């Protein structure tokens, strides 16, 4: 019986953790579908947080690459007074990047819902 209580407590803690993170994320970043993303990203800073090899394989036209692994050192390259449009491959890394930037005082944060894998607009690749 104690094993069941332990399992129930662990599951409860996991559920609470997921809910808290979801609420934090909703406060930090706005998810935009591709059409909404296209409407705003040309007037903003478009940041691809994928690694350099992923970026070189193909990225949204006009994007700047600041990999999430380098964001802590390079976040000052991003202006806090302008909107920041983030994307990664699936939305996970861009969500974590948004949480980090929010802590650093950035307020206009947007991410591409579904990430680059759902993008059907113009892209650039390095030959």
UniProtKB/TrEMBL annotation:
Membrane-crossing segments per the record: 6-23
Rhodanese domain mapped to chain residues: 40-124
Alphabetical keyword list: Membrane, Transmembrane, Transmembrane helix
CDD domains tied to this protein: RHOD (cd00158)
Gene3D superfamilies reported in the protein's UniProt record: Rhodanese-like domain
UniProt keyword Transmembrane present: yes
Domain of life: Bacteria
SMART domains recorded: RHOD
PROSITE patterns assigned: RHODANESE_3 (PS50206)
Protein name: Rhodanese-like domain-containing protein
Organism in which the protein naturally occurs: Lysinibacillus halotolerans
């Amino acid at each position: 019986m104690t094993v069941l209580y332990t399992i129930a407590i662990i599951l409860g803690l996991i559920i609470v953790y997921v809910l808290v993170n979801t609420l934090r994320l909703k406060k930090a970043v706005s998810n935009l579908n591709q059409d909404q993303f296209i409407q705003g990203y040309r007037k903003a800073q478009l940041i691809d947080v994928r690694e350099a090899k992923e970026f070189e394989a193909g990225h949204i036209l006009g994007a700047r690459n600041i990999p999430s692994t380098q964001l802590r050192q390079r976040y000052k390259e991003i202006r806090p007074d302008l909107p920041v449009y983030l994307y990664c491959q699936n939305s996970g890394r861009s969500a974590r990047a948004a949480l980090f930037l929010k802590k650093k005082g950035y307020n206009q944060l947007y991410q591409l819902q579904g990430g680059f894998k759902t993008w059907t607009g113009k892209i650039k690749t390095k030959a």
